Records
---
Amino acid sequence: MKFLNFRNLQTIILIVVISGLLFLALSGYFTPVFNLSLNPLISLQSWLSVRYLSARDFLTTPRDVTQLREQNTLLESQVSQLQTQLIVMEERLGEAQVCFALLDFGRTNPQYSYIAATVIGREISPFLQYIIIDRGTNHGVRYGMPVVTQQGLVGRVDAVIAGAARVKLITDSTSVVNIRLQSAGIEAQLVGSLTGDVALDMIPLDQVVEPGDVVLTSGLGGNFPPNVFVGQVLSTQRRENALFQTATVQPIVDFESISAVLVVNNFQAVDITPLIPEP
Amino acid sequence: MISHLVCALSLVVFFILQTTIFSQARLIAGSADLILLFLAAWSLQEQVKNSWLWTVVAGLLISLVSAMPFYAPLIGYVGVVAISKSLQRRVWRTPLFAMLIVVFLGTFFQQALYVVVLLIIGAPISWSQSLDSVILPSVLLNLIFALPIFAVANDLAGRISPLEVEA
């Protein structure tokens, strides 16, 4: 009976009351009471918190600016690095595109085998149209081999050393290529000039040549393989008392920006000079 | 000794620049000739004694690379240096003016020599077209680049001379 003394009874009643209040609160019976009493408290808390954060931001702003500047510098350096990487990747993409184009040309002309070469220089004298490539006898390049790109005819190897070769372009003033006009079936000669323009010569007067006619190599003379694309006819000229008509040609290859070429290494150029009767 | 080394290195640098960049920078069909400009500027320097030797070396080097007949670049450069040497004695007080005259006359001489050689070997070119499309544009480009090349040659020669005096 000692257990049910006044103090213990008070404690038990207090526990029961608190438990009941908690049960009622968790059951939601006290929500209106809480709303009424806690809302002003929360509003006050929010007001105070906003003011505190504003004051803190105001006091700590200089430090943030410094941090932002550091971050900005860091990001700018990252942007610069990425831009550099982008330029490098674009260059590699350009090289890859050239390689793919050359490879595509090789696949579409499987009868020939090729040596890919990069253009590393140009003729010093402005009177001549030559390029220097980075493949020579060590790589199988020989004198007289035709040189092409994925677009069409470039020229032929004029001189070769162990690690490099000089290619005479079809635009050179001393270059003569025997060609065939695809649509008309006419054979003529393509000659270069001082300015790098190319023209057709020796076209018979009775033949009709239209602008846009496709110019292909004929294979005559043995210097170039037949049916290699050269360009298109731009215009024709007929002069009175001339034995032949001439035509200007737009070459398919852009000789100013040529950067990689293919040397046809299984085409054997034939020197027919001894067979030409002397006048 | 150092003069030979500097001259050799300069020629290599100018040769590379010429074949890779300046041969492609065309005005109509003409282009600047850095080797000619360097030889002209180098031979105009008072303290330089080895200009003939390096002219022959440059001529042989270009002859090996160029599709021109072997002797043509050599004769061209020797002619330019001959003009330079003869003018050096006459207008030695105004080297810049002498440089411009040497470049003007030297380019004309060299290009005219090339035309003659090409005509001899049977190239179908004409004097009028060569003059309009190649020679005059080349002269203009060479005159434009003459002053910076002269400044480089002058600076190089000025730096070399004290070293050789010390040696």
---
Amino acid sequence: MAGILVVAEPQGTGFRRVGLEILSKARDLKGSIGGPLAAYVGGSGVADSASQLGAYGAEKVFVADHEALGSGLAAPHVDVIAKLQQENDFSAILFGGTSLGRDTAAALAARLGAGLNSDSTDLAPGGSGLLATRPAFGGQNLVQSTWTGGPQIALVRPNSFQASESGGSAEVVAVSPEISEAAQRAKVTARKPAEAGKISLEEASIIVSGGRGLGAPENFAVVEALAASLGAAVGASRAAVDAGWYPHPNQVGQTGKTVSPNLYIACGISGAVQHKVGMQTSDVIVAINKDEEAPIFQFADFGVVGDLFEVLPKLTELINQRKG
Amino acid sequence: MKIAVCVKEVPDTTAEKRIDPSTFRLVRDEGDRMLNEFDKYAVEEAIRLKEAGTADEVILISLGPDKAVESLRQGLAMGADRLVLVSDPAAAGSDYLGTANALAKVLDETGADLVLLGSEATDARSGVMAAALGEVSGRAWITSANSLAVNGSTITVERQSDDGVDTVEAPLPAVVSVTKAINEPRYPSLKGIMGAKKKPQDVKSLAEAGIDASSVGEQGAKTKVLGVETPPARTAGQVVKDEGNGAQQILDFLIDKKIV
């Protein structure tokens, strides 16, 4: 077993940032668990962007171009990566915790009979090779887990590592994808892309969330305006989602998404356990709530007791001014 | 058509949870237990397909401690027909693969045309079971269904992807995980709750279910927990009362933290 394979998901003419974050981290891991450091890029019309990954430390980039690989479905990627694994015997295969990453990692691990550590927020040398850290119960515990056999397959939570360029260049290797009929049983027949420029919650480095304190669905406009000024994604508490004020995919909490952005701004959210476990691993938490007894103030780094309809528009204006 | 719904008993989502420092497993005898909230959407969807005449049987399948029957019975109270629970001390400590192996074996026995799952469990939160089960059981699989429709031997799903919503088709038999957008799960009626106790609840050991003990539990797990830490809890930071300059104070704080 030799080397690390990082699965980098194409997005537009570049890549989802989580893939670049993992590559940057893998540069450090290479010293202890051994190189080479390779990347996999699978998609439709992605050949031109592959060489970009050299700047983040990939020495070799395997590029597979096929219509089925651009469908957003995982099964075709599983066939291609399983074959790469057969030929290269990587000791670790690392995925970003996106929807596609999760599906591909799970099915690949099952096919290879390999161990899978999900939702890793850190990877370090240890155990039989790598040691993965995973927050459990919203970060109340940190679980350290290793693998009992290779390849070591991990899903990494976005924003866990810093993406940084190292200025290298990569050898780009075109692979001819062999995709089985079984992997193409599920087929995409139509696609409805989300609004352009919309940032997914899991990947966002800043999230502005609204809760019951907003009072009505149209009031999410103040949250959206602040989010737009910060280049942030919009989240919502369970109370707001259950009331039908904001869509399900935006829910943060125990029965929604778990997020770890650099900055989380909670607006009119009380901060009950249900919400706390979905966001308490954020680096910095700011809360605005009119109730000074709200539990959110017990774990926010900065809290403002006040009317969010006063504070949010002002903050939005200040940030827009600052951007000039 | 037969539908199997994979369900899991989890700790009460509102309760504090604890990991046993000696076994690294969740302490299972503390506090309330419940049917995983995400699974209710899968159970509801299956029952609706039965009510619409598309399906004729809804079977709940699970791997877990035998006491889990009490939580999982909620699915029967909602309207599922029967429960098959694989429960065996040797299955404790199963990872994603052991669980997928066990569920796949039960699926082979029941022969379901459609297998539904919640998108994730509120305890492990990894969201990998549908893909792993699809792979292990050899069925077509689709994750994150916001809606689904069965048309003869084809299933059509509106799938929530990272970039939007896609329409995806697959031939049956198939494994599909559903999101919370798919429906609003019903509360069991009193009649449903009373009737649930009389529905078949088949608790099987690994041997009875024909599952190879080496493929599940700690002996089958491909990952191993080496330690559990409890990081210091987050503490309260500065809290100010807005006297007209709250927004400016937030901005100053963010500048100080080098975020803006």
---
Amino acid sequence: MTTLKPRRKAPGPLRILGYVALAVAAVAVLLPFYWMLSSSLKSNNDVFSIPIQWLPAEPVWRNYLDIWTRSDITTWIGNTVLLSAIVTTLQVLTGSFAAYGFSKITFPGRDVLFLAYIGTLAVPWQSYMIPQFIMMSKLQLTDTLWSIVALQAFGALGVFMMKQFYESIPDELVDAARIDGMSEYGIWRRIMLPLSVPALASLTLITLVNTWNDYLGPLLYLRSPDLWTLQIGLKSFINEYNAEHALIMTGSVLSVLPIVVIFLAGQRYFVEGIATTGLKG
Amino acid sequence: MTTMPVARRRRGRVMVRNTVVGLSFLLPNFTGFLLLTLVPVILLFYYAFTDWSVFGGAEWSGLDNFERMLGDSSFWTALTNTLYYAAFHIPLTLAVSLGLAMLLNRRLRGVAFFRTVAFFPYITSIVAIAQVWNMLFSPTYGPINELLRFVGVENPPGWTTSADASMPAVILVGTWRDMGYYMLLFLAGLQTIPGQLYEAAKVDGANAWQRFRAVTLPGLRPTTFFITVLLTIGSFKVFDLILVMTDGGPGQSTLVLSQYIYKKGFEENEFGYASAVSIVLFAICFLVTIVQFLVNKRRSE
């Protein structure tokens, strides 16, 4: 009977080796984060002390007060939160809406349009950022928060992800609702949306994190300091006060913290979303 | 006999209705997608053949931009550096993420914790990551060089401040950032390999390495193919990490293709020439996808 329990226990030495490898990998991943956190609680002179101070001698909590007065971080956070909320809402709504059209309604030209979406997924953004910038200028969106909304909210990813999920929902269900006289919009709203909560959660989390962390979009489009997001603001702070190591780390911690919390809270959806779109993409 | 046209007309009406309703579903997303992705991608192929500085409009200039590119040493440096990054980042990330995935596929304590933690670098903003690593890599006072000196390296590299070591530093950080993501994809692939195959191989007397070669690797082929495509494209378009970490320096030692496009387009306002360089980036990514697709298809036959 014992042979029927495969891989329950690897032989001793291999097992120990596994734990050693796991420990090394965990340290390698976590050490930079630990460095960030501990430096954020040091006085500026102690950040690069030799030998390394692994624990701040006396935690300098003041850094977490000073950052609010020494930088415009309040403005940056405000802009970032606003953008993340608008982009995520639009992406999830328009993405799932379009995905319903692509997966549950048959009409001529549909597959060609979908091919356009798929085709551009393979084109790196870096290669069309210039014509895109020209389009944005023509639409007079540059140097407004709308440019970032336009940039992030209509991506192919949302359509693709939701379409994949909707295709796993049997057509019979939709047909039955049609026979009952429900309109297509009603079916999307009352049947598809409630059924696709896990996929919607995945898409929400991925879009939220992408928008929060986006550096290049704001770098190209947001020139006025009062429009800056957290990433672009933090970078300018780094350039301006490049010797304020401790305070820079404080700002970094503040920029990372919300994402880590969101990730930990919705980890399951996040990972599922990446695994499904990843593997079938 | 008379029912035929009626049925056809009704079918026609249903199709028209479906088309209208269907398009109305696509419209909100498609409008944005059309204006900001599809049209720009198409325009790229026009702008690349024009001379466009910020003051005038686009003026057709044929192949001038591409001829200029041939003699542009900065362009070749950027291309070589991008190849350098790809040549190391791809195999390194493949090896590390596959190794981690196989580790996580075993029943060890702490696996769930590590799976969570390995993802942190991937969800952390580039600005924060680049800043922390720049400090860790700091030549005189940074912890990495302090460690190297401690283990007996007398002249540890200057990392992001030296032309020779800046690219390795960037590659290391790039791998550190990506490994959790690809590990997850590998893990999903590993779990599709039936356990019986390993049992059968064991019965046949295969050792761990032989089982890896004969069961794991073939079973992972579709996953590996897909990950290689993603990694290759990801490496060729590497941009924000380098922009924030080294800004292409010191000198041009980490200048990559995407950054060169950015420099030409947004700093020097040469939209036409920058678009021509963009075409090169586009062509590389496109070609890689096609080649790998064909290779994979032939292998599976």
---
Amino acid sequence: MTALLEVRDLHAWYGESHVLHGVNMHVNKGETVCILGRNGMGKTTTLRSIMGIVRKREGRITLGGQDLMAMALHRTARAGIGYVPEERGIFATLTVEENLMLPPQIASGGMTVDEIYRLFPNLEERRRSPGTKLSGGEQQMLAMARILRTGATTLLLDEPTEGLAPVIIDAIGEVLRELRKRGMTVVLVEQNFRFAAKVADRFYVMDHGQMSHEFPVGELAARMDMLHETLGV
Amino acid sequence: MANNTQAAPAASAEAQRSRSGVILVVIGLALLILAPFFLYPVFLMKLLCFGLFAAAFNLLLGYTGLLSFGHAAFFGGAAYFTAHAAKVWGWSPELAILLGVAGAVVLGLIMGAIAIRRQGIYFAMITLALSQMFFFFCLQAPFTHGEDGIQSVPRGSLFGFINLNDTMNMYFFVAAVFALGLFCIWRIVNSPFGMILKAIRENEQRAISLGYSVANYKLAAFVMSAAFTGLAGGVKALVMQFATLTDVQWQMSGEVILMTLLGGIGTMAGPIVGAGVIIALQNFLATSNIPVTVITGLVFMICVLLFRRGLVGELADSKLGRMIGLR
Amino acid sequence: MTMVFGVPIQALMGQLLVGLINGSFYALLSLGLAVIFGLLRVINFAHGAQYMLGAFVALLALNWFGLNYWFALILAPLVVGLFGALIERSMLSRLYKLDHLYGLLFTFGLALTLEGLFRWQFGASGQPYAPPAALTGGMNLGFMFLPIYRGWVIVFSLVVCIAVWALIEKTQLGAKLRAATENPTLVQSFGINVPMLLTLTYALGAGLAGLAGVLAAPIYQVSPLMGTNLIIVVFAVVVVGGMGSIMGAIVTGYLLGVAEGLTKVFYPEASNIVIFVIMAIVLILRPAGLFGKEA
């Protein structure tokens, strides 16, 4: 089985500071992969480099055989990939519906607006209010929903559960399982590995700009000691 | 130990810099004294006035980071005040010039107090609008004689006994004012006050959090810049023996920005070099039928796109510049 | 004769009309500046030159090709907008990563060059441009005489202002523009071509200035310097309104035009400077401007 998303020896810089030191990872089609790691280890930078938001980078990134390194930022999404940033990136001057309709459709097979409103009924109720008037959980739902509409088949999700109440976290977990059923490929960055354990197939542990460990979800229990040590939890 | 090996080359580079600084100043003074024997003195005097004007402007843009688009008000305003005092009231040249400086300071206080309430591009637009307001005032006020301006301004006698109608006397007076003005600006830039201005330029928020009342420092820098600009404007009125609307128009504010940008923002020598190039260019173009603004506009665009460090900045960064220790 | 505050009502109404006309131009031009500034963070100093360019396109289209006012009304915004797009693509776009002051300085240089070139080619004096036949003549409103062309300018510019406001606040393209104003990188990562959006925005702003130029041609004379002094007044309008809101720019434009007209009635000596005085007062009382949000 060949990987859908492949990252080889990826280095990245913010200005002068060298953040990623040779990241290697792969994600198979339809798989949900979770990157664990403490703050400042390079998890977000990895997603932003794959997406092309961090431009100062070296190495190889391919998605379904297409070279993402050579693409302008606005072309990357058209390769079939969508990004939900940690800060969610909901626009204050746009209504909920405008936020939802903002990303252009890049492929067929995305969710229709009706499907999205069925999955996230809160968003339909509040579709005329400004995006940032939503609660944190609703903003997270909106940030995910607007990518699902585009037809992207690979989703990069940065800490979707951060700062949210347990019942909302459960709802997000439900959405992720639903996405997996539909064949979506997901790269999830998380600190909360109890949540990740319920949705991910495979894990990477990130440490000082590199992937230090890789294991399937079945080995999670056996790896607890290592995780407690590296994650400091 | 490690510290010492690091410090030694730094100290010697510092010594090298100050040595070449002294050499450059000596060369500059020699040029200042010898130039009138080779070049047309009125051209030189005009150049010195604009050099001082640009250096005063650079005190604000280069060392405080504020882009004023309204310095014509101080330059042209001081020219009017000096010209009026010398011609109508018969004041001696030094007092007439002092009145010009005082007028520029008052204008600077008023414009500065209003403009520093906003930052960046807004600051530029506000100073532009306020100086345009002053332009309309000058257009309508009777003492400026509207479109005619104040003509045949007498140069008079400096301190009552040096006849400034003698071109060489006038030249050396202007050269002395120029040298003194530059020396003062240099002292201000390298004083503790100047350091705080640079800190504000680099990071205004940090300067505020360190407890400096940034607004007062900005206003002080604005008024000082206005004062030296007034000095240049007052002297220019005596050199050219007229004061007209040209000097208060916004194009004049643009010209001084161009001189500073072309020579090198934030360098001591840059504005003077820039003034020299622009004044020479204007003299050269005066005989052709191409409007000067086409050329100045193009130079502006090229500088912004390609040479943002200006002539002196680029030179200092080149091999030659490093060799003679400019950097 | 009817008097209001000791002034004949005809004179009052006449100056109010002049104020509304000037206000129409202030609104159109400050609207374009606000649209450009919102996304590009550039103060377009060349806005006055682009307004002049629009008027010249109208004049030259008539003199060289016999194309009338109505063609010019469509042609000039396109020509000036295209010119703006070329400038943005080739030069202005290189400056976005630098201090915003460089954008101001660059467009200042552009304005000087354009105005110098036109003065060189066409001389400094103004040339008349006749209003179209359908809009000549006037209407007697009972209390005053309204030249039809002036009424047309007021109505048409109001329609254009509202259309641009609706484009930005109510359409999907406008939503893209607003989102890109907030976070261009994220918008681009969605697959939206933000550099193209920037070019289009500059072209839209420049095109609006060109349109204002055509509208102005029959009222003021067409001359290379017609935009120079106007743009400084418009800067003051923009400072008063604050550039945070599109509607703010429009409303402030009309308000200050009327304020200027009224000053001509009651204290003509100050009519040149009243907008600058208002700007100074607003800055003292409310530094962010009437509609501004930022500190």
